[in-house]
Specification:
Layout (H helix, E strand, L loop, with lengths): L11 H7 L3 E5 L2 E6 L1 H6 L4 H7 L2 E12 L4 E6 L2 E6 L8 E7 L4 E3 L10 E13 L2 E7 L3 E7 H6 L7 E6 L5 E2 L2
Antiparallel strand pairs: 1-2, 3-4, 3-6, 4-5, 6-12, 7-11, 8-9, 8-11, 9-10
C-alpha cells in the first residue's frame, strides 16, 4: 500500500533518498517539478539552479571496493564512479554528492590525469546565470557543471555537443 506523504526538506540528499517527486517553489508557484535527481541535477532555469544549489546528487549502488587503495566504485546509472573509500557492502544503495564547480569540462578526451573519473556525454542544456552557467550533460545520468560564460563561448557548449567530464575521486562524497 502506498500512502502519499508531503515531506518538506532543504536537504537534497533526503529528497533524493526518500522522494518519488520533488518540486521547487518560487514566488508561491511551482517553477519545476519531477523526479528528485532530475530537479536537482538538471534545473530548467537560473532561479531553480540557485534554489537547489550547486551540488550534483547521484543515486547509485556500491559496485566494488579497494580499501588498500582507499577507493570505492559506485554504479551510477550504468556508469562507474570512483570515490574515496567507504565501508559499505557491495550492492548497498548510496547517494553521492559532487559539487558542480569541482568538475572539469572538456571537448576533447584527456588522458593521464589525477582525476579518476572521465565520463563522456552530450550537453542537453545550458542555463545562464549572470557571469556563469550550468551545463547539464547526459552521461548515463544528468550531471551539471558550473562554468563561466566565457567557457560556454570558447568551448561552443550547446545542446548536442559531445563533452568529457573529469571528476577527481576526492570531489565525491557519500551523502547516505
Amino acid at each position: 500500500m502506498r500512502i502519499p506523504l508531503l515531506y518538506v526538506t532543504h536537504s537534497a540528499a533526503d529528497a533524493v533518498r526518500v522522494g518519488d517527486a520533488a518540486l521547487v517553489l518560487g514566488a508561491g508557484r511551482i517553477v519545476q517539478e519531477g523526479k528528485p535527481v532530475e530537479v536537482f541535477n538538471a534545473p530548467r532555469s537560473a532561479d531553480v539552479s540557485r534554489a537547489v544549489g550547486r551540488e550534483n546528487i547521484l543515486a547509485g549502488r556500491i559496485h566494488d571496493q579497494n580499501e588498500g587503495e582507499g577507493l570505492t566504485v559506485v554504479d551510477v546509472g550504468g556508469r562507474l564512479l570512483v570515490i574515496p573509500y567507504h565501508p559499505l557492502p557491495k550492492g548497498e544503495p548510496v547517494t553521492v554528492g559532487i559539487p558542480s564547480d569541482d568538475i572539469i569540462l572538456s571537448r576533447e578526451r584527456i588522458a593521464n590525469t589525477s582525476a579518476r573519473n572521465l565520463l563522456e556525454g552530450t550537453v542537453t542544456q545550458v542555463v545562464r546565470d549572470g557571469p556563469e552557467a550550468d551545463v547539464v550533460t547526459a552521461c548515463g545520468v544528468d550531471i551539471k557543471t558550473r562554468v563561466t560564460r566565457q567557457a560556454v563561448h570558447a568551448l561552443d557548449l550547446k545542446p548536442g555537443a559531445k563533452v568529457y567530464l573529469l571528476i577527481k575521486a576526492s570531489s565525491c562524497r557519500v551523502l547516505s
